[in-house]
Amino acid sequence: MKITEKEVEYVAKLARLYVSDEEKEKLTKDMSAIIEFADTLSKIDTDGVAPAAHAIPVQNVFREDVVKDSYKRDDILKNAPEKEAGCFSVPKVVE
Amino acid sequence: MNYEAVIGIEVHAELSTDTKIYCSCANKFGGEINTHCCPVCTGMPGTLPVLNGKVVDYAIKAGLAMNCDINKNSKQDRKNYFYPDLPKAYQISQFDLPLCKDGYIDITVDGEKKRIGVTRIHIEEDAGKLMHDVTPDSSLIDYNRCGVPLIEIVSEPDMRSAKEAEEYLNTLKAILQYINVSDCKMQEGSLRCDVNVSVRPVGQKEYGVRSEMKNVSTFSGVLRGIDYEINRHIEILEAGGVVEQETRRWDDGKGISVSLRSKEDAHDYRYFPEPDLMPIIIADEKIEKLKNELPELPHIKRDRYMEQYGLPEYDATQLTTLKATADFFELVIAAGASPKAASNWIMGDIWRIMNEKYMLIEDLPFSAKQLADMIALIDSGTISNTAAKQVIENMFETAKDPAVIIEDLGLKQVNDESEILSIIDTVIEQNPKSIEDFKGGKGNVAGFLIGQVMRMSKGKANPQTVNKLINEKLAKL
């Protein structure tokens, strides 16, 4: 399957990436190569193989519903790019 | 032209687990800002989610209560989008293998039963809370709610009016409260609705173009929003226009819906299986066990109350909406009261006083047995209905046994005919005009005299006896 420049633009927009024309050209080639590589997988005969969401056969990994200490607010805010009034602060978003 | 509305609703219900869905932070409303947070629920790189087992149990219970099939092979998926209330830039949800599917809820509208399909119920995480109005140039975020477990209950487009939507939501809420998986506190955002509305000419098979109102947080908003959208669509169609498929926001203050322009970008959530979480495999024994834990559900209880106790539909519905009310009612009956009398007292004076005191039925100071005792005292003629109202008031204050209160307040009913006759004589003596009126053919004299006698006896005279004796007296005149 070939990837078009339009698809690269679309994926870049969804990922909030701004790419130059040069990058776009290179990305189009790279992504095509990746998708083509993945295409080889679809040549494998999977008749009689149940679909799986994971490669390893592990299931039902659950946690007990028991409260543990959360982080102190000052600590959790240490990773905030900006903070204000005990909150994470981001550029204004209004729907 | 006549139009028919087609309505489908997605309900997001916060589950009342102790902890969040993927980490051990407290799932609690109203904490100090950003104090129920850890690296997992704030989406720090390198952290891994671990699913809270209770979330799965609660979702399956909801599914069973809504007659769903349980997917024995289920998984979680990533829904990708950028919005700062979601720090990971994706929400963990379920895409093609929801825990529950193909169920239904039966509702009753104007005495008619109707079945509303439940397409699916899946688990997902809630997002944080954004505040846009605190600072001029930034939005502030509280992540306490981020990672709170939700179930999303998606209905089929089976509803045809706001009234049906109201019944659907009331029934759904009652079920969730009965099975104790969500507290359903609308004012705390525990239940939020997305409402899809379209209209089509009556008789047309194909659906019209729908609009979706997101995140409506009150039932009354849902109902007003539905009526608003129905009218808006019809107006567009009548004017020869075309309804646009779009997402809208319900403005409850203004009573209108507004288009959300930002959603013009086509959404592409690029769902894919969540690599950090393992598949959920549900054993038959687990489904059986959870099924056995379900209580009698509200609509089944309501039907039983009508059938077994002969209660009117209104009473049966009111009494079964909250499980605590139904439990209390059944205890009163078990203690010997007649169902209709118990229903009248609970839905009458008791609810009135509870409302005045902002009290829940769980917090009543007296027991179901005490209420049954009081009803028995009315039945035996020991107190009148009027006096019983005072007894109830007093039970709220003192929690004493009704017999003691009757003694304390001297409320014992006077049944003795000679005693009542002497009061009647006094009343007639004091009201000669009413006797003349009676002789002159005016009709309502008996009623007036009965009222006077009851007053003079301080409500203690047996009203039936008073009624009988006064009519006898007047007949002899």
Question: Could you explain how this protein is built, in words?
Answer:
Chain A has 95 residues and is α+β, with helices and mostly antiparallel strands. Chain A has a domain at 5-43: Histone, subunit A (Orthogonal Bundle), CATH 1.10.20. Chain A has three helices and three strands, in the order ααβαββ. Chain A has helices at residues 5-14, 21-39, 73-76; strands spanning 62-63, 83-84, 87-91. Chain A has a two-stranded antiparallel sheet with strand order 2-3. Chain A is flat, with a radius of gyration of 22 Å. The model of chain A has no long low-confidence stretch (mean pLDDT 91). Chain B has three domains: 3-289, no CATH class; 296-409, no CATH class; 417-476, Arc Repressor Mutant, subunit A, CATH 1.10.10.410. Chain B has helices spanning 53-65, 162-178, 219-238, 284-293, 298-309, 313-320, 323-334, 339-356, 368-379, 385-398, 402-409, 417-430, 432-439, 445-456, 463-476; strands spanning 3-14, 51-52, 69-70, 73-74, 77-80, 90-93, 100-109, 112-125, 129-131, 138-142, 149-155, 191-201, 211-216, 246-251, 256-259, 272-273, 280-281. A nine-stranded mixed beta sheet of chain B has the order 3-7-8-11-1-12-13-14-15. In chain B, strands 6-5-16 form a three-stranded antiparallel beta sheet, with no helix packed on it. The chains are: A alpha+beta (95), B alpha+beta (477). Chain A binds chain B through residues 14, 16, 52-54, 58-68, 70-73, 76-77, 79, 82, 84-95, and chain B through 17-19, 24-26, 32-39, 42, 44, 50-54, 56, 75, 80, 82-84, 87, 130-132, 134-135, 137-143, 249, 260, 262, 268, 270, 273, 275, 277-281. Strand 3 (87-91) of chain A pairs antiparallel with strand 10 (138-142) of chain B, so a sheet runs across the interface.
